[in-house]
Amino acid sequence: MTFLEFKDLVSKDLDLRLDAYKPNRVKRRIFSLMRRYQVEDLDDCYQRLQEDPSFKESFLQHFTINTSEFFRNPTSFNFSETILLPRIFSENKKVKIWSAACSNGSEPYSVAILIKEMGIAPDRNEILATDIDHFVLEAARKGVYNSQALLRVEDKIEKKYFKPAGEDRFKLDDKIKKQVRFDHQDLLKEKFASGWNLIICRNFFIYLTREGKDRLTERFTRALVPRGALFLGNTEFIFEPSIFGLKKINGSFYEKSS
Ligand SMILES: C[S@@+](CC[C@H](N)C(=O)[O-])C[C@H]1O[C@@H](n2cnc3c(N)ncnc32)[C@H](O)[C@@H]1O
């Protein structure tokens, strides 16, 4: 079968929106998985997906690159801590934050740590974190990390919020863990809740086609409250934010017009 036929069949069978991801990336990842499992061609691959649950699981996982770490891109977290969050908390009694495509949880937990460090009462914010990958969600709920994930964590923050838990393992403080609720969600096909003051979606747009990004930007904007902010990855930009009713406020931060 051709690659297009394979993609269509698999999209239907696995209920994945493969069309929204950049085609070359989808191709590269499928072929690298096939090499790893010594699967000969696409027909073979399709058959394995039908018959072998562990291959299917690897296939799904192979799509999702889960790289993440605490305070990834520190300048952006610094802007959040010193400018954005103080403004949002000064204007709202209760603040709703959503980390979409949160991976292993280091991103939403970084925000929870910032808020704690700002001296904001825990009941003034709600943090939801979602991802398509069940495995990373399970790891996120456990809140145990290796030193690689903590590379950008300042020593005083590490001492305060992490406890050594075996060789190269560090356990996050329970009070921070309690501040984040994790849920499974496919951003490309499921409905969004609304009323968010801040939506963080970082290092996910890079995998999408232009149409996929535009569609997601439109849906995120609808889910934000007026003056709510969208926080993207450092290499991700919205070329014409005004089309979506957004304006750029700093680096990869955009604000919904009021
Ligand atoms: C590179 S990680 C980004 C993690 C984190 N936001 C950061 O910047 O450190 C991309 C995440 O997107 C998730 N993902 C991929 N496709 C998704 C989809 N359709 N819906 C929700 N999450 C998805 C992956 O499972 C992965 O955890």
Question: Mind sketching the topology for me?
Answer:
Elements (H helix, E strand, L loop, with lengths): L2 H12 L8 H14 L5 H10 L1 H11 L10 H18 L3 E6 L5 H12 L7 E7 L2 H9 L1 E2 L9 H7 E3 L5 E3 L1 H5 L1 E5 L11 E6 L8 H14 E9 L13 E5 L2 E4 L2
Helix pairs in contact: 2-4, 3-4, 5-6
Main beta sheet strand tally, sense and closure = 7 strands, mixed
The whole-number mean of residue pLDDT values reads 94
Structural class: alpha/beta
Each distinct ligand? S-adenosylmethionine
Q: Can you identify the CATH class of the largest domain?
A: Alpha Beta
Number of domains: 2
Q: What share of the residues lie within helices? A: 40-55%
CATH architecture of the largest domain: 3-Layer(aba) Sandwich
* Largest sheet, spatial ordering of strands: 6-2-1-7-8-10-9
Beta content: 15-25%
Q: Strand tally, please?
A: 10
Whole-angstrom Rg: 19 Å
